[in-house]
Design goal:
7 helices; mainly alpha; 197 residues; elongated
Length: 197
């Protein structure tokens, strides 16, 4: 038995919406990770710079008299701090977590807009409308790719997020930590910790 054309179009839109939602979650997770790393690198670099400035302003004789740290060790400390601070800046410039975060943010906006268009066109879709939305979904040449080794963990993250969201709708006053524990306790023992028998 074949589906009526409207049902087929609805199922195509449902599939596109699920994929767009999953892509949104994956790119948002990567965006947040890169933003965190960029903030971490910047903060460490700034703190190291402040300590380096303090070390430079204190003379080796003063440090030896007040802290008992010999001048040679003091110079080594200053040199290592300077090298570490500069290394962090070099890694940050070479790796560009801020630019990666911006690209993943662009992907989040793309897939969020697409999911909205799918929801809007869901009432009475036409073949040309579904084809246009599919083309928009596939028009991702300017967007970053999800690395192959991160795809399954990000998909798992998305599915857990969807499950938690549905549970939160049902029980809005339950704490998220208690909800997570309750849901994890319902997992069959043979599938916990990545072991599937």
């Amino acid at each position: 038995m074949t589906e009526p054309p409207g049902d087929s179009l609805h199922s195509q839109l449902d599939k596109l919406k699920r994929k767009a939602d999953q892509q949104t979650t994956a790119h948002a997770r990567l965006r947040d990770r890169y933003q965190f790393l960029n903030s971490l690198f910047s903060t460490i670099s700034l703190i190291a710079g402040v300590f380096l400035l303090a070390i430079i302003m204190a003379s080796p004789e003063f440090v030896e008299r007040s802290l008992g740290l010999p001048a040679d060790k003091y110079q080594w400390l200053a040199a290592l701090l300077a090298a570490g601070s500069f290394s962090i800046v070099v890694v940050q410039l070479a790796w560009r977590p801020d630019a990666r975060a911006a690209l993943h943010d662009q992907a989040v906006r793309h897939y969020t807009k697409l999911a909205y268009r799918v929801s809007k066109g869901r009432s009475d879709p036409t073949e040309s409308e579904v084809a246009r939305i599919q083309d928009e979904y596939l028009d991702d040449r300017d967007l970053p790719r999800i690395p192959e080794n991160k795809f399954l963990p990000l998909k798992q993250w998305h599915l857990r997020k969807v499950l938690m969201s549905k549970e939160l709708d049902r029980r809005p006053y339950e704490s998220l930590r208690a909800m997570r524990r309750r849901l994890e306790s319902q997992i069959p023992p043979e599938t916990k910790n990545g072991k599937m028998h």
